[in-house]
Amino acid sequence: MLHLEHSCLFFRSWLALTVSVLLDLKPSACRSLSGSRPNILLLMADDLGIGDVGCYGNDTIRTPNVDRLAADGVMLTQHIAAASVCTPSRAAFLTGRYPLRSGMVSSNGYRVLQWTGVSGGLPPNETTFAKILKDKGYATGLIGKWHLGLNCESSDDYCHHPLSHGFDHFYGMPFSMMGDCEPGEMSEKRAGLEHKLNVCSHVMALAAFTLTAGKLTRLVAGSWTLVICSAIVALLCLTTSYFMGALIVHADCFLMRNHAITEQPMSLQRTTALILKEVSSFVKRNKQGPFLLFVSFLHVHTPLITTENFRGRSPHGLYGDNTEEMDWMVGQILDTLDTEGLTNSTLVYFTSDHGGSLEAQFGNNQYGGWNGIYKGGKGMGGWEGGIRVPGILRWPGVLPAGRLIHEPTSLMDVFPTVVQLGGGQVPHDRVIDGRDLLPLLLGTAQHSEHEFLMHYCESFLHAARWHQRNRGAVWKVHYVTPMFHPDGASACYGRGVCPCFGDKVAHHDPPLLFDLSRDPSEAHALTPDTESSFHQVMERITKAVEDHRRTLSPVPLQLDMPDNIWKPWLQPCCGRFPLCWCDREADP
């Protein structure tokens, strides 16, 4: 037995040394690493702030399992999401491309997909890392949140479904967890829709009353048709408003396994257990490997569904409780790898899709995350708090434990990294914005391949960063920033999320300039008087932006109208529409 343990230790050491040597030779050497064919486990939290995790500085929310990942692996301290809201950020993560290239952005304020029953979504001609690894023999699974569309022309064409984008297996929400999935104060669209419908009912009722009075006093001529129509519309608006909460819950808050709806609406208190059971089942079925499993947590998005075991445990209220439960889920998943003997053969990655939501605040309660020292949060296209996220990778025996990397990296980098690890080829027929992380992780490269990164808010460029390697500086310019509300606040309170355009944003000429290497909180904008290289930095970044824009091609914007409005004929329903109800999870 002792001899076997020494043999395993020798093999792991030999593999790590071989990997380092191979990566130090030529760019093609990364492809030689594909022979190792690791399992790949990707863990993504929803709306988690970088300041909510212990290894990133939080000492009041307990995240021992994520912290253990960091201690046993590599931690990225300047890991950047391609967007500050979920739909475009996740599209970029899966494709390795800025979401503007795939059309997964909007230009009219609809920042994410608004309903399950819309025709917008990740276009079929986009290539995900799952699609490439599936072709290379990987078992591919997605468990949890999708939020990248479902159907195009009918309720069962599944053109945007995960199974159409390279995943063999899907279990979870085709849409997203949101405040409206649970009755209460944390509404994201119900309250707004109810207000519009109530206004509609009042206006039409007033019209019907006015027309009726006019008819009875003979001041209005003609038939009663207009009066009747106005009254019917008023009644329809009032009725729809009354049932709006239930309609949203049935339309968006349901679970699917592959193409079949298993629970509509969801029984929220058992969802965590169901997801963990599905993860364990997938790992056990595919433990002979290799497998790619993307676990896309529903935590820590509002309404912060938290089981009784974790309620009241954190000093940060329900949000802290939910974060600690998410960390416990990470631990359960890692324990599954240990139990199945897969820890040393699995690359594990942990991140969040973007920064925490500062505006998720009701009364004296904060239901969104904390972004540490970084300014801004979810929905803010340029400020660091909206886009700087945790980035942790562990692969025992290959990646050095406890390593910190301060270079700029991106969620888009996961695409080329896992593709090349899995023996695939990064597509050459399109622009790929991500860069292979392995040389940086292994220490065979000193600097990130990202010299420039662009920061979009919808289809509008809000900011750009330049990593000036010879000076060790990271410059960031802001062309547009949101106007915080009320004056003196640090977010757009009362607005749900900060806008990307219009009269509630400020355009800067000259742009705001910060040196993130000296001022990561973006507290002190530089000027020609305070920074001698101000004009040179501006000129260099301006040229980089121009070069970047020349690589863009026009594509349909999937989040614009009419692709982002609810269409009844696209609504998934496990009964006869509109009676959408089933609970197949409870069946033996």
UniProtKB/TrEMBL annotation:
Taxonomic superkingdom? Eukaryota
Q: Residue span of the signal peptide, if any? A: 1-20
| Keyword S-adenosyl-L-methionine listed | no
Q: Which Gene3D superfamilies match?
A: 3.30.1120.10, Alkaline Phosphatase, subunit A, Helix hairpin bin
**GO molecular function list:** arylsulfatase activity; metal ion binding
- Spell out the Pfam families in the cross-references: Sulfatase, Sulfatase_C
Cofactor requirements of the protein:
Ca(2+)
What is a single cellular component term in the Gene Ontology annotation? endoplasmic reticulum
The record ties this protein, via PROSITE patterns, to: SULFATASE_1, SULFATASE_2
Matches recorded under InterPro entries:
Alkaline_phosphatase_core_sf, Sulfatase, Sulfatase_CS, Sulfatase_N
Keyword Metal-binding (UniProt):
yes
Q: Which residues form the Sulfatase N-terminal domain?
A: 38-423
SUPFAM superfamilies hit by this protein: Alkaline phosphatase-like (SSF53649)
> Which keywords, in A-to-Z order, does the entry hold?
Calcium, Hydrolase, Metal-binding, Signal
Family matches, as PANTHER family: ARYLSULFATASE FAMILY MEMBER, ARYLSULFATASE L
Q: Which family does it belong to?
A: Belongs to the sulfatase family.
Can you name this protein? Arylsulfatase E isoform X2
| Species of origin | Delphinapterus leucas (Beluga whale)
